[in-house]
Amino acid sequence: MAGEEKGRVGRAGRGGAMLRVCVTCRWQGRDSLDDSGVRPGQHLHDLVKARARPDQADRIHGIVCLTHCLNACNAVAMQRGKMPLLMTRMAPDAAAADALLEMLDRFAASETGEVADAEVPEAIPAARPLIPQGVGRGRPPS
Known about the structure:
By secondary structure, this protein is of the alpha+beta class. It is 29% helix and 15% strand. It is built from four helices and five strands.
């Protein structure tokens, strides 16, 4: 039973804050892949994973398309009971990777998932709730 519990808690960051980085993003104004054939979103994801502390590494995952392609590169911080935080318009570089790791910690420390604009690093040009407060997630009654 203890092994099952340990495995369950470690999967996909259950109960803890997770960071999902879009691996299909193409950076603003660049339609081509880099010389290695890697999309900018994948490059950013790889940088974030490589620069993560051990306690962060298992909470970082790639995601295929956040549908904010015109504002790439994109990532979202998520945790059960909190409003997801979408971060956009990032360059696929080390500064953005470090900023995302910083935001993962700030998001995790926040009670609601909100992070004040003044606390968002410059390497993240835009950060906003993925679903604005007051907007329901459910389908309207039919």
